[in-house]
Specification:
By secondary structure, this protein is an alpha+beta fold. The protein contains 3 helices and 5 strands. It starts with 9 loop residues before the first strand and ends with a strand.
Length: 92
């Protein structure tokens, strides 16, 4: 599934940000496990709040990473969101 640019991704039910006991960076917790996101992945997921559209997330990533090819950024953001959706981490 390729996300529609007008979709407003949000964390799926049962998924949330959590802080590990060792005081390390926040982790994304989901029913099957946890992942520590850094860099671009973290920037994208933090915007999956049900308020930002996919298009807005793409545009914000293009503004943050001006040295990158805008078309490639759009493709990579879409692919990343699709993968998170397949893993039931975000909903559209």
């Amino acid at each position: 599934m390729v996300p529609e640019t007008t979709s407003r991704p949000r964390l799926a039910a049962g998924c949330r940000w959590g802080a590990p006991a060792d005081g390390a960076e926040r982790m994304l917790l989901f029913p099957e496990g946890a992942i520590r996101l850094q860099g671009t992945g973290r920037e994208i997921v933090q915007r999956c709040d049900g308020e930002h559209t996919v298009q807005q997330i793409i545009e914000e990533m293009q503004r943050l990473y001006t040295a990158g090819d805008p078309v490639r950024i759009e493709d990579e953001v879409g692919n990343f969101l699709r993968q998170l959706h397949q893993k039931r981490i975000i909903d559209f």
